[in-house]
Design a protein that fits this description.
- By secondary structure, the chain is of the alpha/beta class.
- The protein is about 35% helix and about 20% strand.
Length: about 350
């Protein structure tokens, strides 16, 4: 049976503390990883989903596989006997600040290769979701993602690419050199507002705002206007290269999407934030699920912001992601977005 969405990348075990790690105390164990978070989110919203990746022959890998299978996800994995599954420690320092410590160098997940991609494509997906995290893990993983994106585009799949820049894995220049050509295969390009310059130029590089501008309301307004112009220029460049949806995530400021019809934006759904980890992946899952259902741009944005609101309202990477029926719990939020 074919699946609606295939995503591939490294899934890890996340060990979360309620306070400083140095103080000791209990740790909660969770499945983590941008691609697996999106897989869980889209599956909970009623779609057939496959996840492909590599885990170690260890309890951490077994935990991940059990968790994903429990969500009804078609797991197309390889077990690497000579390497361990990646682990991340997440330390909650304040209500607003968390710090991540990764132990993933040389992990099983970093050995993802083209053969793994070929096996995953046997799921006959309608859409493919990739992130900019996996190419940063190793040369093999980079080639695998390039191959998956090119194959997906050649076979007419909807190819989604979330930039998801991780400074602990590579520099911005290294990321730009890999992700700009990768983006040419994307149907849907998703990025935070500070990540667009990793996949497009738009004449914008190296001209960010300054602290002085932030302190001066007039200068700050001018900088904000210039920033919006640069964002629009980069989006136009991506649309000109064949991307159909350029989605810009703004966190608490909401999200916007550029298409051939213009820019549509939607505010974030107001909720009490408990944990922002995984919120971007939740938004992506909501947006892609609506796209798979053939819904319009406003409905995609709305579902993305709803899913993001559920994510930040719960602790954990993907534990709080909603089912389709639960979306109505936040149904009092006004529909749609604002066209600009």
């Amino acid at each position: 049976m074919s699946v609606d969405l295939l995503t591939l990348g490294e899934a890890m075990v996340s060990l979360r503390s309620a306070g400083p790690l140095s103080a000791g105390g209990s740790l909660g164990m969770h499945v983590a990883g941008a691609e697996s978070n999106v897989a869980v989110g889209v599956a909970r919203l009623g779609h057939r989903v496959a996840w492909a990746g590599v885990v170690g022959a260890d309890p951490h890998g077994e935990f991940i596989l059990r968790g994903l299978r429990g969500e009804g996800i078609d797991v197309r994995h390889r077990v690497e006997d000579t390497r361990g599954t990646g682990v991340m420690f997440l330390e909650r320092r304040t209500a607003d600040i968390s710090r991540a410590f990764y132990y993933r160098a040389g992990s099983a997940g970093s050995t993802l290769n083209r053969d793994d991609v070929d096996r995953a494509f046997a799921a006959a997906p309608r859409a493919l979701h990739l992130t900019g995290i996996t190419p940063a893990l190793s040369p093999d993983a980079r080639r695998a993602v390039d191959y998956a994106a090119a194959r997906g585009a050649a076979e007419g799949l909807t190819v989604s690419l979330d930039v998801n820049y991780r400074a602990k894995l590579w520099s911005r220049d290294e990321a730009r050199a890999v992700l700009t050509p990768l983006a040419r295969h994307a149907t849907v390009l998703i990025a935070s507002d500070d990540e667009l310059d990793l996949v497009a130029d738009g004449g914008a590089r190296g001209r960010r705002g300054t602290g002085a501008a932030a302190a001066d309301p007039v200068a700050g307004a001018a900088a904000q206007s210039a920033g919006a112009e640069r964002e629009a220029a980069m989006a136009a460049e991506l649309l000109g290269r064949g991307v159909l949806d350029v989605v810009v995530k703004g966190g608490a400021a909401g999200a916007g999407v550029y298409t051939a019809a213009g820019r549509l934006e939607a505010p974030a759904v107001p909720v009490t934030s408990i944990d922002t980890v995984g919120a971007g992946d939740a938004f992506t899952a909501g947006y892609l699920s609506a796209l798979l259902e053939g819904l319009g741009t406003a409905e995609r944005l709305r579902r993305g912001t709803l899913a993001g609101a559920f994510a930040v309202s719960s602790a954990g990477d993907c534990e709080g992601l909603p089912t389709a029926a639960e979306l109505a719990l936040l149904g009092a939020v006004p529909d749609g977005g604002t066209q600009r």
